[in-house]
Amino acid sequence: MNDTEKTPVVPLPSALARPLAAAGALVTIASTFMSWTWTSDFPGDLTVYGYPAGLQVITLVSALIALAYTLAGYNIRGLERINPSGSNNTPALFALGTFGVVWYTVIAIAVDLNGLVNVDPGGFVAAVGSLLLAVGALGLPLDRKTEDSLTKPSWAQRRLLGVFHHALRFLRLAKPALPRTPRAKTAVERIIITVGTGIGLIVFTYGIGIDNQASETFIGYLIAIGLGAWALAHAGLLERYSTLCARHKGFAATLGFVAAVIFPFTQSEDHNANVGVNILIFATVALGLNIVVGLTGLLDLGYVAFLGVGAYAAAIVSGSEYSPVSGVHFPFWAAALTGMAASLVFGVLIGAPTLRLRGDYLAIVTLGFGEIFRITVNNLDGTSGPNVTRGPNGITQIPDLEIFGFQLGNAHDFAGFHLGRFANYLFLMLIVTAIVVLVFTRAADSRIGRSWIAIREDETAATAMGINGFRVKLVAFALGASLAGLAGTVMAHVNFSVNPQPYQFAGAAPPNSAFLLAAVVLGGMGTVSGPLLGAAVLYLVPEKLQFLQNYELLAFGLALVLLMRFRPEGIIANRRRQLEFHEIGQLDVPDQKTLTDEPAGTKAGA
């Protein structure tokens, strides 16, 4: 039964809608080469004719893409390939993205500079052009849900459908092996993956390069990126690209690593490399938490404490004059092992007496452990307790790392590029992240990884099948804690110090337990790329939107509410989570080929 119908949002004659949208796109494109305001006080300097800048660049790119998708509806040779689904929702969403960026810019100019009088003719031309583009695109026949599609299947129906899907998949796997993909086709697919990775690097580099004081530009960037990603999903391009990446998983992972290595060479400021380092630290810890939450189904609300244990352990043995053992100076590999070992021991000590609990009880115990850790290190100051952590002052002046004679604290010139201190640490964190990803994927694809998934789905049934639930959960807890400790080791050296303040349940900025858990849920539980993306979003948005400093938790809460309403399975989800959360008519998504990207939704304490 078809659960969608093709109807326009704006009632326009079918012969008029597409030309109107194309004309609006052309007007909007032309407006970006005009002045939008008379003063350079507005971020981006939108005063120059013939040279788009700031929000004009975002508008120009969005309008060009909207024009291309609008013209694709005329079946122009070559353009039809950019919209495999043939849906008019794609140009409509790009049109709305362009409209949102332009009208937000015009309103922001009027508000920031006190009046519409500060908007130059180019701004008004852009506003009219984007309005025509949006009206024309919304006048196209769009795929819209019917009343029948609003009736969701019951939980039992979704589970039955999931069993049916996996039975069909098993039958497909039982078929004779298909012929190998021709080399020419393989080469084309790898070129497509390379181009996609390059585009992703450009988009990320542009976003992270936006000045922290230019919050208006970053908001426009978010509008364009959000609606653009939604549009590409309707076009079917994201589905095809994810299928290609799954088919060439090793090649795609290598390209992602290469793109991350290239990133520091694209930045003129070391501050952006610092942001990249912190994102990787946050993402690495989130991947460790993903073992506990995403694969095993244990709701841990105090996970950030393991990051703190690793950071403090490394700080104590790294040669700081404020360390209680200031004469001890371990090399990096020994400090990293010390941090991992300390976190692993604490993971076992906390997990052994508590992992027999389930659900809310386990969550409360882990929350208590996180608070106990923070309060304890805050009191080990020589007054309330023995002088181990120096209390709220923390352990400071931690020296920079030196690896194989290479001093990470010094700037270096390489092939004509100047790489600062944070760029050096970024390369180190890339290696650490690669190790954590390797451990995660190998563990998830192993026998114990399948045991984790069985425990998550139904611990009672898994125990009845002979799985030692307590031992399996304790291994997950210990492994996740040790990975967090490894990231904490690097974080202590990057920040020159450790103190109790970040290691709390919730705060205005990461890392804290709430943000770590949100990164896993936002990105997609049980996947590898999901927590990496979730951590990048949750760290980058507060970093760029400085004006929300006093309202970050409010904005964060509203974002989570919207996510749970419209994308409960996370940004990068797998088939099983979509089977659980969406209507039957929306379940046609690509198969996942590896266990690490297949786990279903987490059931806390299951």
Features:
mainly alpha, two-stranded antiparallel ribbon, disordered C terminus
In short:
With 606 residues, the chain is mainly α. Helix content is 61%, strand content 3%.
Which strand-content bin applies to the residues? under 5%
Pick out the low-confidence regions.
147-161, 163-179, 584-606
Taken from the alpha-carbon principal axes, the silhouette is globular
Secondary-structure element order, N to C: EHHHHEHHHHHHHHHEEEEHHHHHHHH
Cα radius of gyration in angstroms: 26 Å
- In whole angstroms, the N-to-C terminal distance is 35 Å
What share of residues is helical? 55-70%
Structural class: mainly alpha
Reading side by side through the largest sheet, how are the strands ordered?
A: 1-2
The average pLDDT value, as a whole number, equals: 81
Number of strands: 6
- Main sheet properties: 2 strands, antiparallel
Annotation field: number of helices: 21
